[in-house]
UniProtKB/TrEMBL annotation, chain A:
This is Carbohydrate ABC transporter membrane protein 2 (CUT1 family). Keywords: Cell membrane, Membrane, Transmembrane, Transmembrane helix, Transport. It is found in: Cell membrane. The chain crosses the membrane at residues 12-38, 76-101, 113-134, 146-166, 187-212, 245-264. GO terms for cellular component: plasma membrane. The keyword Nucleus does not apply. It comes from Saccharothrix saharensis. Residues 77-264 form the ABC transmembrane type-1 domain.
TrEMBL record, chain B:
It is found in: Cell membrane. It comes from Saccharothrix saharensis. This is Carbohydrate ABC transporter membrane protein 1 (CUT1 family). Residues 68-280 form the ABC transmembrane type-1 domain. Gene3D superfamilies: MetI-like.
Length: 279, 289
């Protein structure tokens, strides 16, 4: 397709531009990550050397295992998984029926409820920090992952995305199932959910990624070190951990998200343009 | 009629869990936040109404002005980097016909990193001695910088991290927008004798105006609430050069247990961000209709 510059013209210029872009973007986005992975395998003394070595002179891949043990990463992985899976499950369990009700059952006051939900998107997160924290504290949910699960369920953007998708489902299919005697729950479970796989995939990935990346809420909720998530624990360990071990810990804690991205790339990128903005 | 009643009952059954979650974790805190700003709240005594006292305490705090100045500096720098760079990057990537999948992959890779991980990685890359950044600069024959250790460059350093970590999102959204521009517009402009820059300004920019505006507003609202980078990388230093509004708010609430003053600061932040958010809603609603 025709873009800013007509294809085929300036052929030499194109290849120079392509080469420059490739080198620059690789240097900016790939090199730092590779550098961290390699540096974690240098002994502490070598890591402090100026100028630094590119490849480790002494390979000590054992730092990864050492970091895992020293920082007790297994525990923090488990805590983070509990938070992320819980946020995902509770968000779907709460928001899917809500969006279905708003979209297909159109209850009295439905529009007002959706409006009130969308209103919460207008609130900058920072503004709700203190009152939400105090509410969580009043409910006795500090140091309890349930706080993050329920907080994640109150996600107006998810409700909005799901509702918009449900709105487009063919009415005839739903009506036919109704005539066959399906109740609302059967309708949702047997007809709507199987038809909604694409949007469910997008919403699921966003929920898990957001929960895994979140920092400020886990920081506020989990003051008990034994319950903290990876992000909170890593920043707590950072000042007193030998750099090579810290770097190894950082690499290890990034692996699940990078892996998820590589596997579900298509869904992640589709989700980017799904609800946020139209072209 | 009976069906309507049954459907309403079913609907509210389906909605009940969501209504509870929103009521407890969104609607109630919104209302509570408005009240808290005028109360004295700690965990020791019962909340007491104090009127404007919290605001007066804030205005008397020399860090208050510093925090706003720093936040505005961060937002301004983030707009230059985080808004302009992804757009230009998307324009360039849209012209390239090779390695498309690779470029998409690598610009989005940092977005998947937890922000704390990105911040800690960069903290180490900024190390004036063995850090990758100064090593690269010295390799190019340039002098390294003190990055996080100097009040002159600390904020810039934080903006670089935030941009590196987040620019993938904006770039890919712009890229999608660019791909929907009809090619004949460029063709026609070229026939009229418009050079590359004029085509960029008179075709590309107007055609993506809506996406540009939406992301601009989102970016302002997001960057004014910057917290993780200063909290993890500098703790507000050196010389308070990276104390942001949210970091100050966090200190009031969770170091001094002064939730009232923290809430007063929230309300001021809301006042500033409300204008941008309202504008954002207007723009997107108009586009939806």
């Amino acid at each position: 397709m025709r873009t800013l510059i007509a294809p085929g013209r300036h052929r030499a210029g194109y290849h120079v531009a392509l080469a420059v872009t490739t080198v620059v973007l690789t240097a900016i986005f790939v090199v730092p990550l590779v550098w961290v992975v390699l540096s974690a395998m240098k002994p502490a003394v070598e890591l402090a050397r100026v100028p630094p070595t590119v490849l480790p002179e002494t390979w000590t891949p054992g730092t990864y295992a050492e970091a895992w043990d020293l920082m007790d990463l297994g525990r923090y992985f488990l805590n983070t998984i509990v938070v992320a899976v819980g946020v995902w499950a509770v968000q779907l369990a709460v928001d899917v029926p809500a969006a279905y009700a708003l979209s297909r059952l159109k209850p009295v006051l439905g529009k007002g409820i959706l409006g009130m939900m969308l209103l919460t998107l207008m609130m900058p997160a920072a503004v709700l920090l203190v009152p939400t924290y105090l509410t969580i504290s009043d409910l006795g949910l500090l140091n309890n992952p349930l706080a993050l699960w329920l907080l994640g369920a109150a996600n107006a953007f998810t409700v909005f995305l799901l509702k918009r998708f449900f709105d487009q489902l063919p009415a005839e299919v739903l009506e036919a199932a109704r005539i066959d005697g399906a109740g609302q729950f059967t309708l949702l479970w047997r007809i709507v959910l199987p038809l909604s796989r694409p949007i469910l995939a997008v919403v699921s990935i966003f929920a898990v990624v957001a929960a895994w990346k979140d920092f400020i809420w886990p920081l506020l909720v989990f003051s008990d070190p034994a319950r903290q998530t990876l992000s909170v624990a890593l920043q707590r360990f950072a000042p007193d951990t030998p750099v090579n071990l810290l770097l190894a810990g950082l690499v290890l804690s990034s692996v699940p998200m990078i892996g998820l991205f590589l596997v579900f790339q298509r869904h992640v990128l589709a989700g980017l343009t799904a609800g946020s903005v139209k072209g | 009629m009976r069906r309507r009643v049954a459907e309403n009952l079913a609907a509210y059954g389906f909605l009940s869990a969501a209504l509870v979650c929103f009521a407890v974790f969104s609607w109630y805190p919104i209302a509570r936040g408005a009240v808290l700003g005028f109360q004295q709240v700690d965990f020791v005594t019962d909340p007491a109404w104090v009127g404007w006292e919290n605001f007066e305490r804030l205005f008397a705090d020399p860090l208050f002005a510093t925090a706003w100045r720093n936040t505005l500096l961060f937002t301004a720098l983030a707009l230059v980097f985080g808004f302009v760079v992804p757009f230009l990057l998307a324009v360039v990537l849209n012209e390239l016909r090779h390695f498309k999948a690779y470029f998409r992959l690598i610009v989005y890779l940092p977005v998947m990193l937890p922000p704390v991980v990105a911040a800690l990685i960069w903290k180490w890359m900024y190390d004036p001695g063995p850090g990758l950044l100064n090593t690269a600069l010295r390799g190019l024959g340039l002098e390294g910088a003190a990055w996080l250790d100097s009040a002159d460059t600390s904020m810039l350093s934080l903006v670089i991290v935030a941009t590196w970590a987040n620019l993938g999102t904006a770039t890919l959204i712009y890229l999608a927008a660019l791909q929907s521009i009809p090619g004949d517009l460029y063709e026609a402009a070229e026939l009229d004798g418009a050079g590359v820059l004029r085509r960029l300004w008179h075709v590309t920019v107007p055609q993506t105006r809506f996406v540009l505006l939406v992301l601009l507003l989102l970016q302002v609202v997001a960057t004014m609430q910057v917290f993780t980078e200063p909290y993890v990388m500098t703790g507000g230093g050196p010389e308070d050069s990276t104390v942001t509004v949210l970091l100050l708010l966090y200190r009031y609430a969770f170091y001094y247990n002064d939730f009232g003053t923290a809430s007063a600061l929230s309300l001021l932040l809301l006042l500033v961000l409300g204008a941008f958010t309202a504008l954002y809603l207007r723009v997107t609603r108009k586009a939806d209709a």
